[in-house]
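Slide 14.
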Amino acid sequence: MTGAVRDATVAVRDVTVAVRVEGLTRRFGRRWALRGVDLDIDSGASVALLGSNGTGKTTLLRVLSTLLRPTAGRVEVLGQVLPGGAGGAHGASSTDAVRRRSTLMTPHGHAYEELTGLENLRFAARMSGPAVESSRLLKTLDDVGLEDAAHTAVRAYSTGMRKRLELARLSLRTLELVLLDEPFASLDDEGVSLVQAAIGRWRDGGATVVVASHRTRAATERADRVVRLEHGRVASDEPS
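Slide 15: predicted structure.
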């Protein structure tokens, strides 16, 4: 029994925290989007961040992705203390380090309207590393069901097709932290399954995944933990 307790203690100490948030608040004018959020997320975990519209889910993801600075509190992501709030760095080094190792998938995506799906994917690959062969890019589009739209301008894509293109873009990178904001919106059952399969692949690769959604069933399918926000605060935090 003593040995079992000792082993368990060692296992706990070996856990690496990917995200640590302490007393995080974020204000937009007179409106408080986040009010003293405390949250730790272990590396390799998959977390469903639930709540209705306006509860602070998107704001929290934008802070973790470095797109927003906290009004107060301390935010540490992948070992980097982010600028703003308490103890935040003043330079851009911590922000750049987090952006190289993480990504935020937004509901509207990052595609260029006048480029085709293939051209968007090729551009994204060049921005994040060495050039990728067209055959691999086409295979990646095929994996998300966009093989017939590879040479179609994105301006003609539906919202669901744009989501699939985002999944293809993210699959080209090796990521440590994946932040997904309403990834299931405007998707049919097949599209939902593609997102859930991608979450599984990221987890298998050791990445930490945070899925913000108001679709409880879809978001919790691959989650280890379920965190619920209400009025900008953590209302509950439980195993899935």
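Speaker note: Helices lie at 2-14, 57-64, 93-101, 117-128, 134-143, 159-171, 189-204, 216-220.
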